[in-house]
Amino acid sequence: MMELFFKPKSVAVVGASGTPGKLGYVIVKNIFDSDFAGKVYPVNPKSEEILGYKVYRSVTEIPGEVDLVVTVLPTPKMTVATVEECAKKGVKAVIIESAGFAEMGGEGKVFQQQIVDIVKKNNIRVMGPNCSGIVSRDIVTSIYPMTKKVSKGNVALIGQSGLLAAGMASDIVENESLNINKVCSIGNKCDVNENDLLEYFGNQDDIDVISMYLETISDGRNLTKIAKKVAAKKPIIFLSGGRTEAGARAAMSHTGSIASNSKIVEAAAKQTGMIMADDFTELKDFAKVFSTQPLPKGNRVAVITLAGSVGVNVSDLCANFGLELPKLTPETTEKLKDMFDTPVSNPVDLYFSVTKIGFTKTLETTFPDAFRDPNIDAAVLILAGFEYTQEAVQKKIIQKIVQDVGKPVVVCMIVGYNRYKNVIMDEMGKELPVFPSLISGVKALSKLCEYGIKKQKLSA
Amino acid sequence: MAVNEILAIAKKEQRSVLTEIEAKQILAEIGINCTDTRLAASKKEAVELSEQIGYPVVLKISSVDITHKSDAGGVKVNLKNRDEVEQAFDRIMESATAKYPNANIEGVSVQAMAKPGIEIIMGMIKDASFGPVIMFGLGGVLVEVLKDVSFRIVPVEKKDVVEMIEEIKGKKLLEGYRGQEPVDIGYLQDMLLKLSDFVDKTPGIEEIDMNPVFAYKEGAAVVDARIILSAD
Fold first, then answer.
1. Model confidence over B195-230: pLDDT tens digits?
2. What is d(CA B37, CA B22) in angstroms, rounded to the nearest whole number?
3. Contact A210/A156 with Cβ under 8 angstroms?
4. Secondary structure of A406-446 in the HEC alphabet?
5. B118-229: same fold as B36-112?
6. CATH number corresponding to B118-229
7. Tens digit of pLDDT for each residue in A126-161?
8. Class of B36-112 per CATH?
9. Widest Cα–Cα separation across chain B
10. What's the CA gap between B18 and A152, in Å, rounded?
11. Among all residues of chain A, which has the CA nearest to that of B123?
12. I want to staple B176 with a disulfide (CB 3.0 to 4.6 A). Which of A226, A234, B14, B182 is the partner?
């Protein structure tokens, strides 16, 4: 059933418009610009042609089968009427993007219930209402214009809020900051919910990482079961809204008075192995780390820096996030003895090596020698935004070394000139996880290590 | 009495709160060790039961209408002989009827005085989205002030209950702190598994409190328990 949403052979857009800027236009344009190769049927009683597609007056008027209907209509009443038409036509998948339903309470709730009644009776699956549907290479139903083709990446992003998910998708696609495969926003979740998508993405071989933001949890019991299965195969990064709900509930027991929504959600995450993110940046950042870096075998980290004081701070952060900074082996210490004035320690302060053999050479030899040490599972690489760093990044020296060593790395950029820093973060950010602060990099790496260790235990 | 019978009686009487005696009967039925607790409808019965159970004993008011037993002056502990039991019975009745004049009082529960152990709380609550959820924590002041507890969604596996106990900030207290004997963590894990299994298979239970549970070097005992049933 889910395939009808993500790989339809034909799609109708009800409420399509020929006027650039209108939502009904953006959706058709986004489909037009995507790789979608099936039939496109704009529906609007007042138009003849939109972007070269023949326009139909209603869903029932469309000749041939329609796999997916996307609606963007001004009133809930019109939406209900369209869903009824879909039932008549035999459509099995509908994305309702318009707002004005249960989220408004009152009448909106009644309209949403009418939709639920129709789809249950007719075996139709509905995404939404109040959502922005799907962003993927194969089809885009988002209400934000896509400026580039969506990547064929390995990350699926599930979002509840329509605007936010659409905004994040446009940003990610434009800036190529994350290897996205699909973004899916499910809005009011009157039918299709996070459990359907987790299960679907869990079974998709081209998706390695799932990032999910929810404001409400439709069926926590089922979520726990599904997430447990999926998280054993691939990481699920989870941001849960409404976690701070203060006073639990009107309970008669002690247990009930302590059991807040947030504590239960956190328990579910621990139990299933989902990785909790604390904000939207983390939702994206963690996905970046998990989708680009190999899983470490342990939590032993080398901190690579050019400034001693930064190393001290990052060591403290590592300790706070459960990462260890072991000594390098005697073999590595011996090998690197000419590069340092005192025996190499961890954090690895490259300053001495740079004064002896220069920056590029240090990156090419001293850095990988330290990183390859068998005591080390992963690295935090701290770079500065200067011209020579930019050069090294543009020549892909750092990227290549990281690839060669084959261990996970996070890069932190905290000093330097913006004109270099921005280029470095953009360029390197396409391949490696780059962070604007030490704490964000260390935290993300700690999540990767935690998952890596857990996964090893599972397969042991 | 079997679990189903107790639940059926409460349902028939349109009660959502089980008495402590009923709650402990259910827990005992599913293999959770509780202090010996029996109902005495009169002073005479209270003395008889005290002598059967053996001094010292605890007397608690037994009424579905009185949920905060201590606040109502309804709990007397460490009663060492017949005289003390008789006096305690009178005083409990006096203060309970004074504070709750309309309460339906069925008598007092007579309980063996549990030997002191590390205080634990275990419980369960039904969440609207996640269904039954179980809780483990350190009891007494620690749960009141620090809320040092952990939760898991039912059904749980062995690994989950191991982690639940590991997760507690004060877990050192369980491992034998400052010369104290360590408690029987395996036994506590087992209790949590039994609790999860029970609420998973028994619909209609809204909340459970086992508070306190005394944990010992070997085994543990539920000293007070309460079970709330779903409204429907």
1. 999 999 999 999 999 999 999 999 999 999 999 999
2. 10
3. yes
4. CCCEEEEEEEECHHHHHHHHHHHHCCCCEECCHHHHHHHHH
5. no
6. 3.30.470.20
7. 999 999 999 999 999 998 888 899 999 999 999 988
8. alpha beta
9. 52
10. 58
11. A255
12. B182
Tell me the β-bridge partners of B57: B79, B112
Tokens standing for residue A5 = 């949403």
* Burial letters B130-158, b for 16+ CB under 10 A, else e: bbbbbbbbbbeebbeeeebbbbbbbbbee
Residues of B with CB below 8 A from A253's CB?
Answer: 123, 125, 207-209, 226, 228
Cβ-contact A204, A5 below 8 angstroms = no
Of A284, A285, A290, A196, nearest to A3 by C-alpha is: A196
Write down the domain spans for chain B: 36-112, 118-229
B108 Cβ neighbours under 8 A, 6+ residues apart: B39, B40, B46, B59, B60, B61, B62, B89, B92, B93
DSSP A267-285: HHHHHHTPEE-SSHHHHHH
ipTM reported for the complex, 2 dp? 0.90
DSSP code of A305?
Answer: E
- Contact: A267, B124; criterion CB under 8 Å: no
The C-alpha atoms of residue A214 and residue B89 are separated, in whole angstroms, by 55
The residue among B75, B80, B104 whose CA lies nearest residue B91 is B75
Averaged pLDDT for residues B49-71: 89
Write out the DSSP string of A239-273: EESSTT-TT----SSHHHHH--HHHHHHHHHHHHT
Chain A nearest-CA distance from B14, in A, is: 17
Strand, coil or helix: what is B67?
A: coil
Q: Label the pairing between strands B105-112 and B225-229.
A: unpaired
Could you tell me which residue, A341 or A436, shows the higher pLDDT?
Answer: A436
**Three-state DSSP class for A309?**
helix
Q: Where are the beta strands (DSSP E) in A167-273?
A: 180-185, 209-214, 236-240
Which residues of chain A does B131 touch, with a Cβ-Cβ cutoff of 8 Å?
A: 220-221
A263 touches chain B (CB under 8 A): yes
Residues of chain B with C-beta less than 8 angstroms from the C-beta of A264: 127, 130, 133, 151, 153
A337: DSSP letter: G
Nearest alpha carbon to residue A62 among A34, A29, A90, A32: A90
**HSE-CB of A10 using CA atoms within 13 angstroms:** 14
Domains identified in chain A and CATH numbers: 294-459 (3.40.50.261)
Task: Report the candidate in A403, A453, A161, A366 with the shortest Cα–Cα distance to residue A283.
Answer: A161
Q: Does A229 touch chain B (CB under 8 A)?
A: no
Q: Does A251 touch chain B (CB under 8 A)?
A: yes
CB contact under 8 A, A264 and B130: yes
Tokens coding A130: 């109040």
**Token pair listed for A68:** 């997916």
The pLDDT of residue A205 is: 97
